[in-house]
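Notes from the 1:1 (GR / supervisor)

We went over the backlog. Supervisor wanted to see one worked example end to end before approving the batch request, so GR pasted a single chain during the call. The sequence is below; no edits were made to it. Supervisor asked that the structure be written out right there so they could see what the output format looks like.
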Amino acid sequence: MKKLLFLPIILLVLASCKKNAYEYPTPTTDKSTTTTTTNTDTKGQDTNPGQAHAISLSIPDQVTTVTSTNNTVNATYCEHVILLVNTASYQKAYAVHVKEDFSGSDLAGYNYTVVGRGGNSTFNWVDDNLNNVDKTIKDTVINNVAITKIDLARKFNFTHTFDGDAAAATAYNKLLLSSNQTVSFAASLTSADPTVVTFTGKATLVYTTESN
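Structure output shown during the call:
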């Protein structure tokens, strides 16, 4: 009789455990986590503030000014990315990294230069370590969580020389008429914690002329 009573009790306990596990999920322990933000100010809602290395990206449309002279097309890309970083994680980090990917645009086939801190110019390379980049940092509070706001703004000067004036004019007009070319971003923190969490975002490139 005792054995028969004992079995329903075990089933009841197991059912109770299963219910609790569903309502209160255990945090994941993946070594890499990716979230995507596209042209929206997330204000932290897509990131668990308690998560290690939590980052949220706010990426407006990226304005790029295009000019054409003879057989050469120049494009000045004005990068503007805002990172919202969990302050506790930021204070423990050695560095914040932001990488760009222009494969979603015609600019991927252009050469570019970037003028960095101290006026140093680099060719077809940009420093992704924000320790070495001019930026604006402010502290704020979002949803009762301390957040560090990092505002990154810098220019990439793209250029491409075509075989002739007509080819340059075609490429120039294509850029100005484009409405679906994009640039992608990947942001992450480097710290003593082996967990690496990368957050990605994508923004539309808005091509314009100097007269605009």
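Supervisor's comment: The radius of gyration is 24 Å.
Batch request approved.
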